[in-house]
Protein backbone atom coordinates (compact mmCIF):
# COMPACT_ATOMS: atom_id res chain seq x y z
CA UNK A 1 0.00 0.00 0.00
CA UNK A 2 1.36 3.41 -0.88
CA UNK A 3 0.28 6.86 0.24
CA UNK A 4 -0.01 9.04 -2.83
CA UNK A 5 -0.28 12.84 -2.65
CA UNK A 6 -3.55 14.20 -3.99
CA UNK A 7 -3.69 15.22 -7.62
CA UNK A 8 -3.66 18.98 -8.33
CA UNK A 9 -7.18 20.24 -7.76
CA UNK A 10 -9.04 23.19 -6.31
CA UNK A 11 -8.69 21.58 -2.87
CA UNK A 12 -4.92 21.21 -3.24
CA UNK A 13 -4.62 24.81 -4.43
CA UNK A 14 -6.74 25.91 -1.49
CA UNK A 15 -4.36 24.17 0.94
CA UNK A 16 -1.41 25.80 -0.79
CA UNK A 17 -3.01 29.23 -0.40
CA UNK A 18 -3.65 28.52 3.28
CA UNK A 19 0.01 27.59 3.79
CA UNK A 20 1.06 30.83 2.12
CA UNK A 21 -1.33 32.78 4.35
CA UNK A 22 0.15 31.17 7.45
CA UNK A 23 3.66 31.98 6.20
CA UNK A 24 2.71 35.63 5.78
CA UNK A 25 1.10 35.71 9.23
CA UNK A 26 4.10 34.11 10.96
CA UNK A 27 6.46 36.47 9.11
CA UNK A 28 4.40 39.48 10.20
CA UNK A 29 4.19 38.24 13.79
CA UNK A 30 7.96 37.82 14.08
CA UNK A 31 8.59 41.25 12.62
CA UNK A 32 10.54 39.86 9.69
CA UNK A 33 12.97 37.86 11.79
CA UNK A 34 14.13 34.45 10.61
CA UNK A 35 11.52 31.76 11.32
CA UNK A 36 12.44 28.12 11.84
CA UNK A 37 10.58 25.11 10.47
CA UNK A 38 9.45 24.15 13.98
CA UNK A 39 7.57 27.46 14.40
CA UNK A 40 5.99 27.10 10.98
CA UNK A 41 4.94 23.49 11.61
CA UNK A 42 3.38 24.44 14.96
CA UNK A 43 1.38 27.20 13.26
CA UNK A 44 0.19 24.82 10.52
CA UNK A 45 -0.85 22.19 13.05
CA UNK A 46 -2.80 24.69 15.14
CA UNK A 47 -4.84 25.71 12.12
CA UNK A 48 -5.58 22.12 11.10
CA UNK A 49 -3.76 22.36 7.78
CA UNK A 50 -1.56 19.34 8.53
CA UNK A 51 -4.60 17.20 9.33
CA UNK A 52 -6.38 18.46 6.22
CA UNK A 53 -3.46 17.60 3.94
CA UNK A 54 -2.97 14.16 5.51
CA UNK A 55 -6.69 13.52 5.11
CA UNK A 56 -6.41 14.14 1.36
CA UNK A 57 -3.83 11.38 0.93
CA UNK A 58 -5.28 8.34 -0.84
CA UNK A 59 -4.15 4.77 -0.30
CA UNK A 60 -3.30 2.25 -2.98
CA UNK A 61 -2.25 -1.37 -2.59
CA UNK A 62 1.29 -2.15 -3.73
CA UNK A 63 4.22 -4.31 -2.79
CA UNK A 64 3.52 -7.16 -0.36
CA UNK A 65 5.75 -7.31 2.70
CA UNK A 66 6.45 -9.56 5.63
CA UNK A 67 4.76 -9.00 8.99
CA UNK A 68 3.98 -11.03 12.08
CA UNK A 69 1.04 -13.34 11.25
CA UNK A 70 -0.01 -13.58 14.89
CA UNK A 71 -0.60 -9.83 15.17
CA UNK A 72 -2.22 -9.00 11.84
CA UNK A 73 -5.58 -9.89 10.36
CA UNK A 74 -5.18 -7.84 7.18
CA UNK A 75 -3.29 -8.58 3.96
CA UNK A 76 0.41 -7.71 4.33
CA UNK A 77 1.52 -4.57 2.58
CA UNK A 78 4.23 -1.90 2.63
CA UNK A 79 3.91 1.86 2.41
CA UNK A 80 5.79 4.65 0.67
CA UNK A 81 5.20 8.34 1.34
CA UNK A 82 6.15 10.92 -1.27
CA UNK A 83 8.69 13.37 0.13
CA UNK A 84 7.15 16.20 -1.92
CA UNK A 85 3.90 15.93 0.07
CA UNK A 86 5.82 16.12 3.34
CA UNK A 87 7.83 19.11 2.23
CA UNK A 88 4.61 21.00 1.44
CA UNK A 89 3.71 20.94 5.15
CA UNK A 90 7.19 21.45 6.54
CA UNK A 91 7.96 17.78 7.25
CA UNK A 92 11.29 17.42 5.47
CA UNK A 93 13.05 14.17 4.70
CA UNK A 94 15.69 14.98 7.36
CA UNK A 95 13.14 13.98 9.99
CA UNK A 96 11.71 10.60 10.79
CA UNK A 97 7.97 10.41 11.41
CA UNK A 98 5.68 7.66 12.60
CA UNK A 99 2.38 7.53 10.73
CA UNK A 100 -0.20 5.66 12.79
CA UNK A 101 -3.42 4.88 10.97
CA UNK A 102 -6.40 3.61 12.95
CA UNK A 103 -8.37 1.50 10.50
CA UNK A 104 -11.41 0.93 12.70
CA UNK A 105 -12.63 -0.75 15.85
CA UNK A 106 -14.42 -4.01 16.52
CA UNK A 107 -15.64 -6.24 19.34
CA UNK A 108 -16.85 -3.35 21.52
CA UNK A 109 -19.40 -5.72 23.02
CA UNK A 110 -20.81 -3.18 25.46
CA UNK A 111 -22.46 -1.54 22.45
CA UNK A 112 -23.58 -4.80 20.82
CA UNK A 113 -26.88 -4.42 18.96
CA UNK A 114 -26.73 -0.64 19.12
CA UNK A 115 -27.45 1.24 15.94
CA UNK A 116 -24.87 3.84 14.85
CA UNK A 117 -27.38 6.69 15.11
CA UNK A 118 -28.64 5.83 18.58
CA UNK A 119 -27.79 8.51 21.15
CA UNK A 120 -25.28 6.51 23.19
CA UNK A 121 -22.53 9.08 23.01
CA UNK A 122 -19.27 9.10 21.11
CA UNK A 123 -15.78 7.61 21.34
CA UNK A 124 -12.60 9.57 20.74
CA UNK A 125 -8.89 8.72 20.77
CA UNK A 126 -6.05 10.77 22.24
CA UNK A 127 -2.41 9.87 21.51
CA UNK A 128 0.87 10.99 23.02
CA UNK A 129 4.42 10.27 21.94
CA UNK A 130 7.62 12.24 22.49
CA UNK A 131 5.93 15.38 23.87
CA UNK A 132 3.33 15.42 21.07
CA UNK A 133 -0.43 15.10 21.51
CA UNK A 134 -2.96 14.13 18.86
CA UNK A 135 -6.73 13.83 19.00
CA UNK A 136 -9.30 12.14 16.78
CA UNK A 137 -12.75 13.30 15.81
CA UNK A 138 -15.51 11.68 17.88
CA UNK A 139 -17.17 8.59 16.41
CA UNK A 140 -20.61 7.29 17.47
CA UNK A 141 -20.53 4.42 19.97
CA UNK A 142 -21.13 1.08 18.29
CA UNK A 143 -19.97 -2.53 18.39
CA UNK A 144 -17.74 -1.64 15.43
CA UNK A 145 -17.10 2.11 15.89
CA UNK A 146 -15.95 4.03 12.86
CA UNK A 147 -12.65 5.08 14.42
CA UNK A 148 -10.73 5.80 11.23
CA UNK A 149 -8.05 8.43 11.63
CA UNK A 150 -4.37 8.96 10.83
CA UNK A 151 -1.81 10.49 13.18
CA UNK A 152 1.66 11.76 12.26
CA UNK A 153 4.24 11.99 15.06
CA UNK A 154 7.81 13.17 14.74
CA UNK A 155 10.42 10.69 16.00
CA UNK A 156 13.63 12.45 15.01
CA UNK A 157 14.31 16.13 14.67
CA UNK A 158 16.96 17.61 12.45
CA UNK A 159 17.63 19.97 9.58
CA UNK A 160 18.72 19.65 6.00
CA UNK A 161 22.36 19.35 7.05
CA UNK A 162 21.85 16.78 9.82
CA UNK A 163 22.26 13.07 9.31
CA UNK A 164 19.10 11.02 8.96
CA UNK A 165 18.40 8.85 12.00
CA UNK A 166 19.18 5.22 11.16
CA UNK A 167 17.55 2.09 12.51
CA UNK A 168 19.93 1.82 15.48
CA UNK A 169 19.15 5.38 16.58
CA UNK A 170 15.40 4.77 16.34
CA UNK A 171 15.72 1.50 18.25
CA UNK A 172 17.26 3.45 21.15
CA UNK A 173 14.11 5.59 21.47
CA UNK A 174 12.23 4.17 24.46
CA UNK A 175 9.14 6.36 24.23
CA UNK A 176 6.02 4.29 23.52
CA UNK A 177 2.78 5.65 22.09
CA UNK A 178 0.13 6.15 24.77
CA UNK A 179 -3.44 5.75 23.56
CA UNK A 180 -6.44 6.96 25.57
CA UNK A 181 -10.02 6.08 24.62
CA UNK A 182 -12.70 8.37 26.07
CA UNK A 183 -16.49 8.07 25.87
CA UNK A 184 -18.63 11.23 25.90
CA UNK A 185 -22.35 10.86 26.59
CA UNK A 186 -25.16 12.98 25.20
CA UNK A 187 -24.94 15.34 28.20
CA UNK A 188 -21.25 16.05 27.57
CA UNK A 189 -19.91 14.02 30.51
CA UNK A 190 -16.72 12.10 29.77
CA UNK A 191 -15.60 8.67 30.94
CA UNK A 192 -12.21 7.01 30.60
CA UNK A 193 -12.75 3.74 28.71
CA UNK A 194 -9.23 2.43 28.13
CA UNK A 195 -5.56 3.34 28.41
CA UNK A 196 -2.98 1.49 26.32
CA UNK A 197 0.78 1.76 25.78
CA UNK A 198 1.78 0.78 22.24
CA UNK A 199 5.34 -0.39 21.53
CA UNK A 200 5.88 0.86 17.99
CA UNK A 201 9.49 -0.26 17.39
CA UNK A 202 8.43 -3.56 15.78
CA UNK A 203 7.94 -1.47 12.65
CA UNK A 204 11.75 -1.17 12.40
CA UNK A 205 11.97 -4.86 11.48
CA UNK A 206 9.20 -4.79 8.87
CA UNK A 207 9.99 -4.62 5.14
CA UNK A 208 9.13 -1.20 3.80
CA UNK A 209 8.95 0.04 7.41
CA UNK A 210 5.23 -0.75 7.48
CA UNK A 211 3.46 -2.90 10.06
CA UNK A 212 -0.16 -3.95 10.51
CA UNK A 213 -1.33 -4.99 13.95
CA UNK A 214 -4.43 -5.33 16.11
CA UNK A 215 -4.37 -4.25 19.74
CA UNK A 216 -6.79 -5.36 22.44
CA UNK A 217 -7.91 -2.50 24.66
CA UNK A 218 -8.42 -3.25 28.34
CA UNK A 219 -10.65 -1.46 30.81
CA UNK A 220 -9.43 0.76 33.63
CA UNK A 221 -9.27 0.46 37.43
CA UNK A 222 -11.28 -2.58 38.62
CA UNK A 223 -11.95 -3.57 34.97
CA UNK A 224 -8.29 -3.46 33.92
CA UNK A 225 -8.37 -7.18 33.11
CA UNK A 226 -11.54 -7.00 30.99
CA UNK A 227 -11.39 -6.52 27.23
CA UNK A 228 -13.12 -3.38 25.97
CA UNK A 229 -12.57 -3.81 22.25
CA UNK A 230 -10.02 -4.16 19.45
CA UNK A 231 -8.42 -1.51 17.27
CA UNK A 232 -6.86 -2.34 13.88
CA UNK A 233 -3.75 -0.26 13.27
CA UNK A 234 -1.32 0.40 10.47
CA UNK A 235 2.10 1.83 11.44
CA UNK A 236 4.43 3.31 8.86
CA UNK A 237 7.87 4.84 9.25
CA UNK A 238 8.39 7.88 7.02
CA UNK A 239 10.78 7.98 5.26
CA UNK A 240 11.24 4.18 5.41
CA UNK A 241 14.52 2.59 6.42
CA UNK A 242 16.78 1.59 3.57
CA UNK A 243 17.43 -1.70 5.33
CA UNK A 244 15.06 -3.00 8.05
CA UNK A 245 16.56 -4.23 11.29
CA UNK A 246 16.72 -7.90 12.09
CA UNK A 247 13.60 -8.99 13.96
CA UNK A 248 15.63 -10.87 16.57
CA UNK A 249 17.68 -7.73 17.27
CA UNK A 250 14.52 -5.71 17.95
CA UNK A 251 13.09 -8.42 20.20
CA UNK A 252 16.36 -8.72 22.10
CA UNK A 253 16.50 -4.94 22.69
CA UNK A 254 12.91 -4.83 23.98
CA UNK A 255 13.52 -7.82 26.25
CA UNK A 256 16.71 -6.22 27.60
CA UNK A 257 14.89 -2.99 28.44
CA UNK A 258 12.14 -4.95 30.18
CA UNK A 259 14.65 -6.85 32.32
CA UNK A 260 16.43 -3.63 33.28
CA UNK A 261 13.13 -2.02 34.24
CA UNK A 262 12.15 -5.01 36.36
CA UNK A 263 15.54 -4.93 38.09
CA UNK A 264 15.21 -1.21 38.86
CA UNK A 265 11.77 -1.80 40.33
CA UNK A 266 13.06 -4.68 42.44
CA UNK A 267 15.97 -2.66 43.81
CA UNK A 268 13.75 0.29 44.69
CA UNK A 269 11.28 -2.01 46.41
CA UNK A 270 14.09 -3.43 48.54
CA UNK A 271 15.25 0.10 49.39
CA UNK A 272 11.68 1.28 50.16
CA UNK A 273 11.13 -1.61 52.59
CA UNK A 274 14.34 -0.80 54.45
CA UNK A 275 13.48 2.90 54.50
CA UNK A 276 10.00 2.11 55.89
CA UNK A 277 11.43 -0.02 58.68
CA UNK A 278 13.72 2.84 59.68
CA UNK A 279 10.74 5.19 59.62
CA UNK A 280 8.73 2.96 61.96
CA UNK A 281 11.68 2.59 64.33
CA UNK A 282 11.64 6.34 64.95
CA UNK A 283 8.13 6.20 66.40
CA UNK A 284 5.72 3.22 66.24
CA UNK A 285 2.76 5.56 65.74
CA UNK A 286 4.17 6.44 62.31
CA UNK A 287 2.44 3.33 60.97
CA UNK A 288 -0.88 5.20 61.03
CA UNK A 289 0.42 8.27 59.20
CA UNK A 290 -0.45 8.88 55.58
CA UNK A 291 2.94 8.21 54.01
CA UNK A 292 2.33 6.99 50.47
CA UNK A 293 5.36 5.65 48.62
CA UNK A 294 3.63 3.92 45.70
CA UNK A 295 0.57 4.81 43.61
CA UNK A 296 -1.54 2.91 41.09
CA UNK A 297 -2.46 4.36 37.71
CA UNK A 298 -5.57 3.75 35.62
CA UNK A 299 -4.07 0.56 34.13
CA UNK A 300 -3.33 -0.94 37.55
CA UNK A 301 0.43 -0.40 37.22
CA UNK A 302 2.20 0.52 40.48
CA UNK A 303 5.03 3.05 40.55
CA UNK A 304 6.61 5.49 43.03
CA UNK A 305 4.50 8.60 43.68
CA UNK A 306 7.47 10.76 42.66
CA UNK A 307 7.01 9.45 39.11
CA UNK A 308 3.59 11.14 39.05
CA UNK A 309 5.25 14.57 39.25
CA UNK A 310 7.30 16.12 36.46
CA UNK A 311 7.94 19.80 35.63
CA UNK A 312 5.57 21.01 32.92
CA UNK A 313 6.10 24.18 30.92
CA UNK A 314 2.88 25.68 29.60
CA UNK A 315 4.52 27.04 26.41
CA UNK A 316 2.93 30.51 26.76
CA UNK A 317 -0.56 29.05 27.11
CA UNK A 318 -0.44 30.12 30.78
CA UNK A 319 1.37 33.30 31.73
CA UNK A 320 1.86 32.92 35.48
CA UNK A 321 1.56 30.47 38.40
CA UNK A 322 -1.74 32.13 39.36
CA UNK A 323 -3.14 31.44 35.90
CA UNK A 324 -1.94 27.85 36.22
CA UNK A 325 -3.86 27.48 39.49
CA UNK A 326 -6.94 28.97 37.84
CA UNK A 327 -6.63 26.59 34.88
CA UNK A 328 -6.38 23.48 37.07
CA UNK A 329 -9.35 24.57 39.18
CA UNK A 330 -11.51 24.74 36.05
CA UNK A 331 -11.00 21.06 35.27
CA UNK A 332 -13.88 18.86 36.37
CA UNK A 333 -13.93 16.74 39.50
CA UNK A 334 -14.52 13.02 39.24
CA UNK A 335 -15.20 10.34 41.80
CA UNK A 336 -14.26 6.65 41.57
CA UNK A 337 -16.93 4.61 39.82
CA UNK A 338 -17.66 1.17 41.22
CA UNK A 339 -20.35 -1.48 41.02
CA UNK A 340 -21.96 -2.10 44.38
CA UNK A 341 -20.56 -0.98 47.72
CA UNK A 342 -17.11 0.55 47.93
CA UNK A 343 -15.48 2.66 50.61
CA UNK A 344 -13.30 4.55 48.08
CA UNK A 345 -10.25 4.05 50.28
CA UNK A 346 -8.11 3.19 47.22
CA UNK A 347 -7.46 6.24 45.11
CA UNK A 348 -6.48 6.19 41.44
CA UNK A 349 -3.64 8.30 40.09
CA UNK A 350 -4.47 8.67 36.41
CA UNK A 351 -1.72 9.47 33.93
CA UNK A 352 -1.52 13.05 32.74
CA UNK A 353 -2.87 12.25 29.27
CA UNK A 354 -5.86 10.38 30.72
CA UNK A 355 -6.61 13.30 33.02
CA UNK A 356 -6.35 15.91 30.28
CA UNK A 357 -8.27 13.82 27.74
CA UNK A 358 -11.20 13.36 30.13
CA UNK A 359 -11.04 16.94 31.35
CA UNK A 360 -11.73 15.82 34.91
CA UNK A 361 -10.10 13.83 37.68
CA UNK A 362 -9.79 13.22 41.39
CA UNK A 363 -8.16 15.55 43.88
CA UNK A 364 -4.71 13.93 43.67
CA UNK A 365 -4.71 14.29 39.88
CA UNK A 366 -5.57 18.00 40.13
CA UNK A 367 -2.83 18.50 42.72
CA UNK A 368 -0.25 16.62 40.62
CA UNK A 369 -1.00 18.75 37.53
CA UNK A 370 -0.80 21.97 39.54
CA UNK A 371 2.50 20.86 41.09
CA UNK A 372 3.86 20.07 37.62
CA UNK A 373 2.93 23.53 36.35
CA UNK A 374 4.37 25.33 39.37
CA UNK A 375 7.62 23.39 38.97
CA UNK A 376 7.65 24.43 35.32
CA UNK A 377 7.42 28.07 36.44
CA UNK A 378 10.53 27.55 38.55
CA UNK A 379 8.88 27.37 41.98
CA UNK A 380 10.03 25.01 44.75
CA UNK A 381 6.77 23.04 44.70
CA UNK A 382 5.75 19.82 46.43
CA UNK A 383 2.65 17.68 46.59
CA UNK A 384 1.27 17.22 50.12
CA UNK A 385 -0.67 14.13 51.17
CA UNK A 386 -2.77 14.19 54.29
CA UNK A 387 -6.35 14.75 55.30
CA UNK A 388 -8.96 17.47 55.52
CA UNK A 389 -10.94 18.33 58.62
CA UNK A 390 -13.23 15.34 58.84
CA UNK A 391 -10.59 12.70 58.18
CA UNK A 392 -10.88 12.34 54.40
CA UNK A 393 -7.78 11.69 52.29
CA UNK A 394 -6.69 14.84 50.52
CA UNK A 395 -3.88 16.21 48.36
CA UNK A 396 -2.74 19.78 47.85
CA UNK A 397 0.36 21.68 46.75
CA UNK A 398 2.96 23.52 48.80
CA UNK A 399 5.57 26.02 47.64
CA UNK A 400 8.53 27.32 49.65
CA UNK A 401 10.12 30.68 48.94
CA UNK A 402 13.81 31.51 49.22
CA UNK A 403 13.09 33.24 52.55
CA UNK A 404 11.43 30.10 53.93
CA UNK A 405 7.80 31.20 53.58
CA UNK A 406 5.40 28.29 53.03
CA UNK A 407 2.32 28.73 50.84
CA UNK A 408 -0.46 26.17 50.32
CA UNK A 409 -2.20 26.00 46.94
CA UNK A 410 -5.69 24.51 46.67
CA UNK A 411 -6.00 22.83 43.27
CA UNK A 412 -9.79 22.59 43.40
CA UNK A 413 -10.41 26.33 43.81
CA UNK A 414 -7.15 28.06 42.88
CA UNK A 415 -6.92 29.74 46.32
CA UNK A 416 -3.64 30.19 48.19
CA UNK A 417 -3.00 30.17 51.94
CA UNK A 418 0.06 31.46 53.75
CA UNK A 419 1.18 29.08 56.51
CA UNK A 420 1.72 30.98 59.75
CA UNK A 421 2.93 28.80 62.60
CA UNK A 422 3.14 31.49 65.26
CA UNK A 423 -0.60 32.23 65.32
CA UNK A 424 -1.62 28.67 64.48
CA UNK A 425 -3.63 30.03 61.58
CA UNK A 426 -3.25 30.46 57.86
CA UNK A 427 -4.12 33.68 56.10
CA UNK A 428 -4.86 33.80 52.40
CA UNK A 429 -2.45 35.78 50.27
CA UNK A 430 -5.15 36.56 47.70
CA UNK A 431 -8.09 38.60 48.95
CA UNK A 432 -8.41 38.85 52.73
CA UNK A 433 -10.38 37.91 54.65
CA UNK A 434 -10.72 34.28 53.51
CA UNK A 435 -11.62 31.07 55.36
CA UNK A 436 -8.98 29.07 57.15
CA UNK A 437 -7.40 26.37 55.02
CA UNK A 438 -9.20 23.00 55.13
CA UNK A 439 -6.09 20.86 55.71
CA UNK A 440 -5.89 18.93 58.96
CA UNK A 441 -2.97 16.48 58.84
CA UNK A 442 0.07 16.00 56.61
CA UNK A 443 1.95 12.71 56.27
CA UNK A 444 4.42 13.31 53.44
CA UNK A 445 5.47 15.79 50.76
CA UNK A 446 7.24 15.04 47.47
CA UNK A 447 8.04 16.19 43.98
CA UNK A 448 9.92 14.73 41.00
CA UNK A 449 13.27 14.62 42.80
CA UNK A 450 12.56 14.39 46.54
CA UNK A 451 10.37 12.55 49.04
CA UNK A 452 9.95 13.54 52.70
CA UNK A 453 7.94 11.83 55.43
CA UNK A 454 6.74 13.72 58.50
CA UNK A 455 8.54 12.58 61.67
CA UNK A 456 7.46 15.48 63.88
CA UNK A 457 5.54 14.64 67.08
CA UNK A 458 2.36 16.00 65.49
CA UNK A 459 0.78 15.66 62.08
CA UNK A 460 -1.46 18.70 62.52
CA UNK A 461 -0.71 21.04 59.63
CA UNK A 462 -1.04 24.14 61.77
CA UNK A 463 1.64 22.91 64.19
CA UNK A 464 4.08 21.45 61.65
CA UNK A 465 7.29 23.03 60.49
CA UNK A 466 8.00 22.77 56.76
CA UNK A 467 11.76 23.18 56.85
CA UNK A 468 12.41 20.08 54.75
CA UNK A 469 16.17 20.29 55.26
CA UNK A 470 15.72 19.63 58.98
CA UNK A 471 16.31 15.87 59.37
CA UNK A 472 14.74 15.89 62.85
CA UNK A 473 11.40 16.94 61.33
CA UNK A 474 11.38 15.18 57.95
CA UNK A 475 12.87 11.85 56.88
CA UNK A 476 14.08 11.99 53.30
CA UNK A 477 14.47 9.28 50.70
CA UNK A 478 17.71 9.00 48.78
CA UNK A 479 17.55 11.17 45.62
CA UNK A 480 19.74 8.59 43.86
CA UNK A 481 17.27 5.81 44.68
CA UNK A 482 14.36 7.89 43.41
CA UNK A 483 16.19 8.75 40.20
CA UNK A 484 17.09 5.10 39.61
CA UNK A 485 13.41 4.21 40.04
CA UNK A 486 12.46 6.57 37.22
CA UNK A 487 11.51 9.74 39.12
CA UNK A 488 12.32 12.87 37.16
CA UNK A 489 13.33 11.02 33.98
CA UNK A 490 11.78 8.78 31.37
CA UNK A 491 9.58 9.68 28.38
CA UNK A 492 8.64 13.33 27.98
CA UNK A 493 5.19 13.98 29.46
CA UNK A 494 2.29 15.17 27.28
CA UNK A 495 2.15 18.95 26.88
CA UNK A 496 -0.80 21.28 27.12
CA UNK A 497 -2.46 22.19 23.83
CA UNK A 498 -4.17 25.39 22.69
CA UNK A 499 -7.95 25.59 23.22
CA UNK A 500 -10.02 23.82 20.60
CA UNK A 501 -13.00 26.17 20.91
CA UNK A 502 -13.45 29.86 20.20
CA UNK A 503 -14.37 31.44 23.56
CA UNK A 504 -16.32 34.28 21.94
CA UNK A 505 -18.42 31.93 19.82
CA UNK A 506 -18.97 29.56 22.77
CA UNK A 507 -19.96 32.48 25.02
CA UNK A 508 -22.51 33.76 22.51
CA UNK A 509 -23.97 30.28 22.02
CA UNK A 510 -24.32 29.74 25.76
CA UNK A 511 -26.02 33.12 26.16
CA UNK A 512 -28.59 32.23 23.50
CA UNK A 513 -29.24 28.85 25.10
CA UNK A 514 -29.65 30.47 28.52
CA UNK A 515 -32.18 32.91 27.13
CA UNK A 516 -34.22 30.03 25.78
CA UNK A 517 -34.26 27.93 28.96
CA UNK A 518 -34.91 30.97 31.18
CA UNK A 519 -37.81 32.06 28.99
CA UNK A 520 -39.25 28.53 29.08
CA UNK A 521 -38.93 28.38 32.86
CA UNK A 522 -40.63 31.75 33.34
CA UNK A 523 -43.38 30.72 30.93
CA UNK A 524 -44.26 27.80 33.22
CA UNK A 525 -44.70 30.40 35.97
CA UNK A 526 -46.98 32.48 33.70
CA UNK A 527 -44.36 35.22 33.48
CA UNK A 528 -43.26 37.06 30.38
CA UNK A 529 -39.59 37.69 29.59
CA UNK A 530 -38.07 40.84 28.11
CA UNK A 531 -34.31 41.15 27.51
CA UNK A 532 -32.40 44.41 27.75
CA UNK A 533 -29.46 43.99 25.35
CA UNK A 534 -27.73 47.14 26.60
CA UNK A 535 -27.77 45.94 30.21
CA UNK A 536 -26.55 42.52 29.07
CA UNK A 537 -23.61 44.20 27.38
CA UNK A 538 -22.79 46.25 30.48
CA UNK A 539 -22.44 43.02 32.49
CA UNK A 540 -19.47 41.96 30.35
CA UNK A 541 -16.91 44.11 32.23
CA UNK A 542 -18.14 42.67 35.54
CA UNK A 543 -17.72 39.10 34.32
CA UNK A 544 -14.25 39.92 32.98
CA UNK A 545 -13.33 41.50 36.33
CA UNK A 546 -14.50 38.44 38.27
CA UNK A 547 -12.44 36.16 36.03
CA UNK A 548 -9.38 38.40 36.37
CA UNK A 549 -9.82 38.39 40.14
CA UNK A 550 -9.79 34.58 40.18
CA UNK A 551 -6.65 34.49 38.04
CA UNK A 552 -4.62 37.34 39.56
CA UNK A 553 -6.29 38.46 42.80
CA UNK A 554 -6.84 41.97 41.38
CA UNK A 555 -10.26 43.64 41.12
CA UNK A 556 -10.16 46.20 38.27
CA UNK A 557 -12.92 48.42 36.93
CA UNK A 558 -15.32 48.19 39.87
CA UNK A 559 -16.09 51.92 40.00
CA UNK A 560 -16.69 52.16 36.24
CA UNK A 561 -19.08 49.20 36.28
CA UNK A 562 -21.12 50.61 39.17
CA UNK A 563 -21.36 53.99 37.44
CA UNK A 564 -22.57 52.41 34.19
CA UNK A 565 -25.25 50.38 35.99
CA UNK A 566 -26.53 53.44 37.90
CA UNK A 567 -26.88 55.33 34.64
CA UNK A 568 -28.95 52.65 32.92
CA UNK A 569 -31.22 51.48 35.78
CA UNK A 570 -34.35 53.71 35.93
CA UNK A 571 -35.38 55.51 39.08
CA UNK A 572 -37.44 53.38 41.42
CA UNK A 573 -35.83 50.14 40.20
CA UNK A 574 -33.23 47.94 41.89
CA UNK A 575 -30.39 46.04 40.24
CA UNK A 576 -29.52 42.76 41.97
CA UNK A 577 -26.92 40.27 40.76
CA UNK A 578 -24.28 37.90 42.08
CA UNK A 579 -21.62 35.89 40.22
CA UNK A 580 -21.72 32.10 39.90
CA UNK A 581 -18.80 30.13 38.54
CA UNK A 582 -19.31 27.07 36.29
CA UNK A 583 -16.84 24.71 34.64
CA UNK A 584 -19.25 23.48 31.96
CA UNK A 585 -21.40 24.95 29.17
CA UNK A 586 -24.74 23.22 29.76
CA UNK A 587 -27.51 25.82 29.93
CA UNK A 588 -30.06 23.70 31.81
CA UNK A 589 -27.55 22.87 34.55
CA UNK A 590 -26.66 26.57 34.87
CA UNK A 591 -30.32 27.45 35.38
CA UNK A 592 -30.84 24.66 37.92
CA UNK A 593 -27.84 25.84 39.95
CA UNK A 594 -28.96 29.47 39.85
CA UNK A 595 -32.47 28.56 41.03
CA UNK A 596 -31.10 26.43 43.84
CA UNK A 597 -28.80 29.21 45.06
CA UNK A 598 -31.64 31.73 44.85
CA UNK A 599 -33.82 29.47 46.99
CA UNK A 600 -31.04 29.01 49.55
CA UNK A 601 -30.51 32.78 49.76
CA UNK A 602 -34.25 33.30 50.24
CA UNK A 603 -34.35 30.76 53.09
CA UNK A 604 -31.40 32.41 54.82
CA UNK A 605 -33.02 35.86 54.58
CA UNK A 606 -36.28 34.57 56.09
CA UNK A 607 -34.35 33.25 59.08
UniProtKB/TrEMBL annotation:
Protein name: Centrosomal protein of 76 kDa
Domain CEP76 N-terminal stretches: 13-57
Domain CEP76 C2 stretches: 95-242
Cellular component GO terms, alphabetical: centriole; centrosome
Species: Eptatretus burgeri (Inshore hagfish)
Subcellular location: Cytoplasm, Cytoskeleton, Microtubule organizing center, Centrosome
UniProt signal peptide: none
Gene Ontology BP terms: regulation of centriole replication
UniProt-listed InterPro entries: CEP76 (IPR052299), CEP76-C2 (IPR028926), CEP76_C (IPR056288), CEP76_N (IPR056289), CEPT76/DRC7_peptidase-like_dom (IPR056290)
Domain CEP76/DRC7 peptidase-like: 348-477
